[in-house]
Amino acid sequence: MRKWGIGFTAVLFVLIIWTGVSTQFASYIFPGPIDVFHEGIKQWEKGEIQNHILLSLKRLVTGFLISAILAFLIGILAGVSRWFKDFLTPLVTYFQATPPMAWAPLLIIVLGLGDAPMIAVIIIASFFPILINVMQGMDMIPSSHIQAAKTLGAKGWKLGIFVYLPEIIPAAISGIYVGFAISWRSLVAAEMIGGNAGIGYFIAFNGQIGNTTSVLLGIILIGFLALLMDYVFLKPLYNRFAKWASRTANG
Length: 251
Hints:
With 251 residues, the chain is mainly alpha-helical. Helices cover 84% and strands 0% of the residues.
């Protein structure tokens, strides 16, 4: 309860500051919380904002799942094969240093408007943080654990599921958190540049026509949806996998 109380106080503090600042401007330049709240109700009744939200979430989930699966498979393979890890490391270093949004214009030209370039941006944005953490997790597995499992007859996919995966979960979850945050920001930015729908497009379109109330509504939704996905998806995912990894590691 104390934690929620502190969080509520922080939100209340921001609303008070926001209200105070908004009184210094005309409502069409910098609207206050009440104006944005009314705009949210209006957009919800029109049914447009739901479509933008659902489309952005669909793109995010699709791209993130593809990215996570690829990162786990490639990261485990790099942990098993020294040659493959040495081959992969300079490529990871290069692409990790490249901002995901740098790819957006090229992806839009090659793949066109729509879901494909947006999903591709998400994959690029989230793949490398997850991959790096999976590779680090593989490096931290004690060789004695692997040898013990092999002595008991574990090999192939059994070794991957019952030894590698439980051991790398803590490191991988950290990568998932980082990758999720980067991919969400990158998706919104990509939608602003070349999207034809989605939260980013909603903000960019309303910015072009000078509707600052809807722009602020979109900005608030970005943060709110990130918090919602953290509590509804990421934290339960971590708890579930942490318990599974603990049970598996303990036999």
